Structure formats: C-alpha cells, structure tokens
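Throughout our pipeline, every protein is held as a single compact record rather than as scattered files. Nothing more is needed to write down the fold, since each code stands for a local backbone conformation. The record that follows is passed on verbatim for readers who wish to inspect the format.
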Amino acid sequence: MGSKDVLAEDEELRELQERVGTLSPRVSLVAICEPKTSLLNLDSIRVKVGMDLAIANQAGSVWVLYKSSFDCQTMGESEQHITLRVVSQLLPEEMYFSFVHAKCTGQEREGLWEELLREKQDVKPWFLVGDFNVILSAEEKRGGVPFRQADGVELAQFMSLAGVGDAGYSGSRYTWCNNRQGMARVWKRLDRMLINSAAMRMGSEFTVQHLGRDPSDHAPLLLSAVTRLDGKPSPFRFLNVWTTKSGFMDVVRECWSGSLPGSPLKVLSEKLRKMKHALRHWSRSSFGDIFLETWSPEQKVAEAEIAHDDNPSEELLLQLQEARAPLRNALRVEEEFWKQKARVKWLADGDRNTVFFHSIVTERRRKSVIHRVRRTNGEWVDDEASICNEAVNFFQGLFTEEVGCVSSDMLKVIPRVITAQDNSGLTEIPSMDEVKEVLFSMDGDSAAGPDGFTGKFFTTAWEVVATDIHRAIVSFFCGTEMLRTTMADNSLLAQELLSDIRKPNRGGNVVIKLDMMKAYDRVSWMFLVQVLRRFGFSERWIDMVWRLVSNVWFSVLVNGSSHGFSKSTRGLRQGLCNDVE
C-alpha cells in the first residue's frame, strides 16, 4: 500500500511503475496526490501501474488505484480528500482510509478539517494519509523562515478534535524539498499518516516508510501492515480499570479458591496463571470492548438531545440526564484505560484528557517500533525474522558470563562491616503485616511486572491473595528452591534518567558518565558473592541473593512479540537494585 505525490510526466510515471513493480506483490493499493493530468488518463495509468481498479474524487486531486482483492467504497470527498471504506481478506477488519492532498494556505485548508471531522471514525480503524501541507514542530523543517508555533496549531487542533495521533515513520526526516540551491533550499515533513485509537488496538502494526524523493519533490510513503509472526496472543496486561467493575472480586475469589499441589512459590505462580485466563474470559464476556461500550451510550445521548431540543419537557430532560450517566461512566473507563497505558504520573487525580493520554501512547509506540537493525558486519536487515534473530543473539551474548578471574587484591580492601545483628535482621522471616506494608507501598499505576499484573491487582485483591503471597515469601526465606523467573522487560536495560541535572543549583551542575557497558548487565555473580562475603554477610543471606540473581531466564520483546528463551549467566535484573536504598 503506498501514497505518492506525483506529476504525471513520463519520467515520474516510469519511476512510479518501477517502484510498484519492485514492491509487487506487496503493494495492493496506490494513492496518487495531485496527478496534474486529466481524469481521462486514470484508467491508462492504472493499467501501467498494474492495478485492477481505480477511484478518484470529483476534483481529480486524489486518485486511488487498487487490486481486485480490495473492495473500496467512497464514504466522503472534497476538493482536498477522499475517504474510502476498505474491505479485504488481506486486512483483519473493515477499515476507513482518508487520502489527503491539502491546499497550501491555512484559510484554504479550513474546509478540509471540517470535512474530515464529519467523517470521523470512533469504532472502526481510521487512517488519514497524504500531503497535509502543514508541519507540527520545528523538528519537521530545515531551512527557510524559522518555524513558528502558530504554524502548527491548525493540524494539532484537528488531531485533538479527531482523536488521532501520528503513526510515525522510518527513513528520511523530511518528505518534501523545494530542490532549490544553497540557502534557498527548504525541507519539510508535509506528508504523514494519522491513526485513531481503533487502529492502534489492531493486531497488525502499521508502519510508514519514507522512500526516496527523486524525481519528485515529495517522498512516496510506503505503508505496511506488520503482523505477529509467532501467532501467539498479545502478552497479558492487567487493566486497573477492571477493579472498578462489579463482579471483579467474585472472579478473583472463584479462581483463587481451592488448593493446588507443590511448593508455595509454585502454587502462587499457578494461581496467577489461572487468574490471567479467568480475567481475560471475564473481560470479554462481562466487561466487553470498552470502546464499543462508549459508542452505544453516545448514540442514546444524541437521540435524547434531539428529542429534548424538539420538545423541552421535564420528562425528556430527565431521560436526557439518565442517558448521560452511562456515557460518563463509559468515558471514564476509556480514559482510565489510556491513562494506564500512558503511565503519566504528574497529572493529579481528576485531570481528564483522554486525547492527551492517547497521544502519549501513540508517540511511545512510534518510538518503540524497530524498523531495521545493523548487524556486526555493518549489514542492515529490515525483515521481522532477521530483526528478531539479531536481538536474541545480542542479548544472549550480553548475559553470558565471560571467562576471567577476580583480583584478590581488589577483594582485600573491602572492610567487614556487617554485624551478627545485621545478619539476623536481614534473614528474619517477614510477618504478614510487613509483607502487606511493602506491597501497599507499591505504585498501583506503575507498569506491570513480567507476569502482567500491576500493583493495583494485589492491593485490591489482598484479602483473597494475602495468604498465598505470604507463604511464598516465607518459603523463599526458608531456602525453598525458587521458580524460574523471566525478564519480560529485558530490552529496557539502561535507566539513565538524569532529571536532577536540570534543577537550579548554586555554581552549576556537572554530570560524569562512566560508560561501563551497562554495568548491571555484566556483573559477575561469583564476584558478587565474594564481595558479599568480604563485607560480612551471612551464608544464608548470600544464598538468598544467589537464588535471586542466578535464577533468571529471559525473552526479548521485539515489536510486541517475545522471542527466544535463554538462561542468564551474569548480570542483575532491571529493578533488582533500583529500589534498594
């Protein structure tokens, strides 16, 4: 699927044919903005490009050429765009595409934003792609008159009202160049793809690649749908908003009840595994799709408002108020969903801005998608399988112990400072109250752990899960063998947050960064044990530390899918030391 600004001249038509031919059969749809030729040539160009069908807006400013595997129906159009309903077996569901060729001035573009807002999609995936002829920030321009914040207001305001975010891109930063010489040369990112929340939730990950501009002044956009290769479902993620739904605790009690064989740690792990399946089933059957749940109340409120406007009686006013209550609740649930995914902690409770949370999630996803990687030999690879293999090989090497020896002279300088009283306190079995105090001090809105559960689950379900959690902790302190643990977040290895450097300080601030190849990841376990012994830690405490650091298996998350499963032989898990004071 591609989008291109093109002048219908021989050279550029040949270039378009070559691009589509090179990418065939991957390209099933081509959108051409500003073809600068008569609509009478639409069919002849369609044939030359190798497409089966074609459609265009009445102004002829946007053409869409596509193969017979696609069924495209016009849902709206203007001089600057065309919106299509697209159905195909190649797509996971019905989608809406708005192909845009915006005018050059803000006054001329006003009508475009109004038309697109009338065609806004909330439930179905909606993609807006093409030449918007406006940029959002100074980062999207080089050369010419400096960017002013006011220049990007119209597009930012439209995105907020439409509930869409930028899908991101790979390739060159700019999609347009005026091709002038010297200081008169200007680059801008005028072309982009915007997507709504329904498109973000799809099983396929849509990516945008900026191809080379030559011979046009605009870069073609190559849109690709990246699907999961392993066929596995998405990893489980506990939604904190579930705890607000009636019936949540009933599901927890029913799933958690009963006894299971095995050690306390194994029992806890098995019950959490069962809980994932139970909550997924309950969410589908009782909680439903939180976004579809919003659509029905919105329709009822709209109908009630129309009825009350026509006949402003007390009875119809009461019906309108009754219709608004479910909508407010549905919107609150949707907002909580996006707030958790955005993981924004500086907003106070009560601040409501679903569009803001949505934009945060969109930007994070855009930055986290890996489009290509470079091998050690300098070769770039961009297919999903090769990217995954390179990631797995890299982390396997990173977490594999290298043969070496520890200098005894280094260990000799370590003083023995841990007393018998210290060791007694460290190895004392924690009480139920101590476990509860620690667990309830966790931030319930923080990111989920490797098992997918947030702190909110454990605090909400404490009365049910408390006994099993305490037994598991006691068994660990008593020396029971630990279960194999995984590092689901092992690709986030460097926490180099230096926020304090920006704080005002007398005399200024200085940061010295010692690049030790992410020291935590390369810590030798044997060296760690020898250091602990020199400090005077008891063998019981050292044994607990050993079981924590050495019993680690890891997978690598690549674009939302886990790959590989290997045992680490060195390094410390992320988070293991972050909370130690």
In short: DSSP finds 18 helices and 21 strands in the chain.
